[in-house]
Specification:
Blueprint lengths: L7 H23 L8 E2 L9 H20 L9 H10 L4 H29 L7 H25 L2 H16 L17 H31 L5 H8 L9 E2 L1 H25 L25 H7 L3 H19 L11 H23 L10
Antiparallel strand pairs: 1-2
Length: about 375
């Protein structure tokens, strides 16, 4: 009996049909299509996909963090030794730790770039004020994760970070009780920060991300500023679609895989370092780069600057959508705010360079 060959196109059509049926069966039971939202064509550009890249970075951090937690001991006596064990003995420990470290740095950078894109395009304006505040919350949580992760190394840098944590708790008075070793004498403060790093902050971050996704689904992805301004002046409303949610998700996943590949290479070429054993009573290190803008203020005004400088900065950012009430979003129509933003960015970069150029100073115990 002769067998009729199946053309390549027929194989492709049959495969696509099987995929559609499989997806329809899954969607019928789980309702995953309800997560989709309209995606304009410009949303697949790098500037508008930074949030998705950040999300996939958090997934990488979660997976690598779970692996690292299997070998970490959150006690002052064993913390640093367990990190050494991860680096030298645990299966793929040094690579996984490096991926975790470099992904955390990249995620911090993508959050800041995402924040900058939203500022430049005016995407924080009505009706997206709440999502701007959600983004600021995610920035604060990410900084908290990086800070607690720094302490967990329990090297000289981590020990000094913990000392600043304790001093900040004292400055906050009754509000800082959780940062005090007097809160629970049976649990070392390192263990409490470990709990914050692996439970409290990730849980808060998950809730914030869910709120962010719900708000994006509610309001859609913001249009290009020129299109939004044309609509304000009586032109056509910006298009809310043009791409597909599936294509948007695939593009985000692609960037996420690129991030994983890049951090794997960095973990091999530039492994995450571990500093010397902590020496109590000394300050010889500087904080990670995302905290360096605050370091000069600590030198000039002492430890209280670690409270009021970030509070002023985050407070000003939180008020931005309620101060800038103009309906226009193009940078050309927001020259004053663009100039202020440029001054702030240049100042922050200058503060980082100033902190790098100057020798570490002692702050703890000098209030």
């Amino acid at each position: 009996m002769a067998v009729t060959p199946i053309a390549h196109g027929d194989w492709g059509e049959a495969s696509a049909t099987r995929w559609r049926r499989t997806w329809a069966a899954i969607d019928e039971r789980l309702g995953l299509s309800g997560l989709a939202y309209p995606v304009p064509e410009h949303a697949n550009g790098i500037g508008f996909i930074l949030g998705g890249i950040t999300f996939f970075g958090f997934l990488i951090l979660a997976v690598t963090g779970v692996w690292l937690a299997q070998f970490y001991h959150p006690t002052p006596e064993a913390a640093r030794e367990s990190v050494v064990y991860i680096m030298n003995v645990a299966p793929a420990g040094d690579i996984v730790r490096g991926i975790h470290f470099w992904t955390a740095n990249i995620v911090m950078a993508t959050i800041l770039l995402h924040l900058g894109r939203i500022f430049v395009t005016g995407s924080y304006k009505r009706p997206r004020e709440a999502n701007w505040l959600v983004g600021l919350s995610l920035l604060a949580i990410t900084m908290g994760l990086i800070f607690t992760g720094t302490v967990m190394k329990w090297d000289q840098e981590g020990y000094e970070a913990l000392g600043h944590n304790v001093e900040a708790g004292k400055l906050l008075g009754a509000l800082g009780f959780w940062f005090s070793s007097d809160f629970e004498a049976n649990l070392p403060l390192l263990g409490r920060l470990y709990m914050a790093h692996v439970v409290i902050l990730p849980a808060l971050g998950t809730l914030v991300l869910i709120a962010h996704f719900l708000l994006v689904k509610r309001h859609g992805i913001s249009s290009l500023p020129a299109q939004a301004d044309a609509a304000v002046d009586g032109g056509p409303a910006p298009a809310k679609s043009g791409s597909t949610f599936a294509a948007h998700l695939v593009r985000m996943a692609g960037f996420g895989l690129l991030m994983l590949a890049a951090t794997t290479v960095l973990a091999i070429v530039l492994p995450a370092m571990l500093g010397a054993r902590p020496i109590p009573g000394t300050e010889t290190t500087k904080p990670p780069w995302m905290f360096l803008p605050f370091y000069p203020f600590e030198n000039w005004f002492g430890l209280p600057a670690l409270i009021w400088v970030p509070s002023i900065l985050f407070g000003a950012l939180a008020l931005l959508p309620f101060i800038d009430r103009s309906p226009y979003r193009s940078p050309a129509r927001r020259r004053v705010l663009m100039a202020i933003g440029a001054v702030v960015v240049v100042s922050l970069v200058g503060l980082v360079l100033f902190a790098i150029a100057n020798a570490p100073q002692s702050h703890i115990g000098k209030m």
